[in-house]
Structures are given as structure tokens and as C-alpha cells.
Design brief:
The complex is a heterodimer.
Chain A lengths: L1 H36 L2 H15 L3 H4 L6 H16 L1 H5 L3 H6 L3 H4 L4 H12 L4 H7 L4 H17 L2
Helix pairs in contact in A: 1-2, 1-4, 8-10, 9-10
Chain B lengths: L1 H9 L2 H6 L5 H13 L1 H20 L8 H16 L11 H6 L21 H50 L1
The chains are: A mainly alpha, B mainly alpha.
């Protein structure tokens, strides 16, 4: 009896946390998924599935000290990679840039754009990207920093 | 020391951390540097806010019905998981077939000409068969005994008549 009351309590807590996450990060998360797969209808389906996954531990995601957005981003990336690996194995800079985020991506150089898309939207590690581009890890990190700096400042 | 912090910030490791592309060691390094140096802490917080702002700038508002879809999807799971486990009970096949449709009724298949019985009836049928054989054998035995007795009586009667016929002559 006590355990079922605890279960109900935990469910209610998680439901509330889930609603908070949806209100605060739902649109950012949908934009992130659309940027990844460039398909609005599919992105909505994925978002529903992702919320189903995080409904079990939504409460943990909004605890103080937890970077909720970073955790959501990583969960989304892993979920999409498991569901549809080819879509993220090599994020296509062209299709990402042709999407809704093109106004930011157009501010970047080709290398910055390639690094940003493959790391932010794709599932590539810095080491894998460095190998692919025949550059060092430091160059990739610098490119990523510059790309984010340009996008943050809008120039 | 200041140049070390500057070098650390400019290396892009913080950006790698916030895009989820840093290795486990790099993540630990970022967290320990953040604890140790206020400049790193400041840059960390600034970047955290900016990453969220950037995500908001590239956001796509979900349609109003999407939350209902999410809720429906989760409720489906909640209903399944909150079911209490039932104690184990052995059912006969007929009950198992009937229960999904109408728990109070037994489904009868009018087309089927076969019937199923409990295994214990096998021994009952064997006993009835053997008893039947014994009964038949006994009946045959007493029938033959009876016939034999009838013939003996007939013979005795004949002998008796013959002796009666002989006696008056004497």
C-alpha cells in the first residue's frame, strides 16, 4: 500500500516536471530535432517519443545544478542516433543550412559550419571530425568556439 | 596562472562541453577548472545561458495538440505499469478461451464434434471395460453351467421314467 502511494507520488511529480520541461524547452527541442532531420512531421513524432522516454526521470532533469538543456540535447541526440543512425552519422551541412537555422549558419565559414553542424546536430566526436578533416583536435575545438561566438554575437 | 585560464577558455573545451562532444576526462577538467577559477565559472555560466538563447532563436513552436499527444502516449504506459500483479491461478483451457471476451460465460463451439474430458476418466473407462469383460465371462460360465444342469435333469427324468415303467411289470 505504501509503495503504491509512493509510486503515485513519483508519477505526479514526474508529470509536473514533464510539463515544466515541455513549456520551457519544448519549442527549442523541436527546433533542434527539425535542424537534425529537416522534417517537421517526423520531428514532432520524435519529440513525442523523447518525452515518453524522459517521463520516467523528468524530475531528475530539473533538479538544481543540472544543466537541463544540455541533458535534453544529449538525450535527443542519442535517441535519434539509435532510432535512425544514418540521419546523424554525418550531418549534411547543406540540408541543415537550408533549414530554419540558415540565417545563423550563413554567418559561418565553411569549416566552422561543417564543425558546428556535425557536432551540434550530428553524432560525431571531435576526434572523428579531426580525422575526417585531416586536422588536429585543437583546430576543431577552436572552430567550434569561433562558430558559437559568431552565432552568439550575430556577427 | 592568468594565461593558463585564458588558454583554457580559448581552447574551445567549454564549447565542446556544452555541445556534448567533450570526452569524460575533458568534462572532469571543465568541472574542476570551474570550481577552481572564478573566470572559468563566469565564462561557463555565460556560455550556458547563450547556448539556451541560441536554441531559443532556432526554436520551432510545437502545435497546441502536441502536448495532448505526449500526455496520451505517457498515459498508455502509466496504465500498463500501474497494474498490480495477479496471484497465480491455474485455469482450464475452456476458461482461458472464454475469459478475454465474457468472463462469466463459457464459449461453446457448436461446430465441434469432439469433447475433452479429464485424464482421470481414462482409468474409470479401463475399470469399466475390465469389469464388463469379467461380467461377460461370468455370464457365459453360468449359462453353460445352467445348460449342463438342464441336460442332467432331463437325463435324470428319463431314467426315473424308465425305472417307473420297469417296476409295475415286476
Amino acid at each position: 500500500m505504501k509503495s503504491s502511494a509512493n509510486n503515485t507520488n513519483a508519477l505526479e511529480k514526474n508529470e509536473h516536471a514533464l510539463r515544466t520541461i515541455f513549456n520551457k524547452y519544448g519549442s527549442a527541442l523541436l527546433g533542434y530535432i527539425v535542424g537534425m532531420i529537416n522534417d517537421h512531421a517526423k520531428a514532432e513524432n520524435y519529440l513525442v517519443e523523447i518525452f515518453r522516454v524522459i517521463s520516467r526521470f523528468a524530475d531528475e532533469l530539473i533538479r538544481p545544478g543540472v544543466n537541463t538543456w544540455l541533458r535534453l540535447q544529449q538525450l535527443t541526440k542519442n535517441f535519434l542516433y539509435k532510432s535512425n543512425p544514418p540521419a546523424l552519422s554525418g550531418a549534411d551541412t547543406k540540408f541543415v543550412a537550408s533549414g530554419h537555422s540558415n540565417k545563423f549558419l550563413n554567418l559561418l565559414t565553411n569549416d566552422q559550419k561543417h564543425v558546428f553542424c556535425n557536432i551540434y546536430y550530428g553524432h560525431k566526436s571531435i576526434q572523428a571530425l579531426a580525422q575526417e578533416m585531416c586536422k588536429g583536435d585543437d583546430y576543431i575545438k577552436r572552430c567550434l568556439r569561433e562558430a558559437l561566438s559568431v552565432m552568439r554575437n550575430g556577427k | 596562472m592568468e594565461s593558463k585560464v585564458k588558454e583554457f577558455i580559448e581552447s574551445g573545451i567549454l564549447e565542446a562541453y556544452f555541445t556534448g562532444s567533450a570526452t569524460a576526462e575533458e568534462e572532469q577538467e571543465v568541472l574542476s577548472m570551474k570550481q577552481a577559477y572564478p573566470e572559468v565559472q563566469q565564462e561557463f555560466e555565460l556560455l550556458e545561458q547563450d547556448m539556451l538563447k541560441l536554441a531559443d532563436l532556432m526554436a520551432v513552436p510545437p502545435p497546441p495538440s502536441l502536448w495532448n499527444r505526449i500526455e496520451d502516449n505517457i498515459n498508455e504506459i502509466t496504465v500498463r505499469t500501474t497494474q498490480q500483479p495477479q496471484p497465480y491461478r491455474e485455469y482450464h483451457e475452456s476458461h482461458q478461451q472464454a475469459s478475454p471476451k465474457q468472463p462469466g460465460y463459457i464459449e461453446v463451439d457448436a461446430q465441434n464434434t469432439h469433447m475433452r474430458v479429464h485424464k482421470v476418466w481414462r482409468w474409470v473407462f479401463a475399470a469399466v471395460f475390465i469389469l464388463g469383460k469379467i461380467f461377460l465371462a461370468t455370464a457365459i460360465y453360468f449359462y453353460l453351467e445352467n445348460r449342463q444342469a438342464q441336460e442332467n435333469i432331463k437325463e435324470l427324468k428319463q431314467q426315473l421314467r424308465q425305472t417307473q415303467q420297469v417296476q409295475p411289470r415286476q
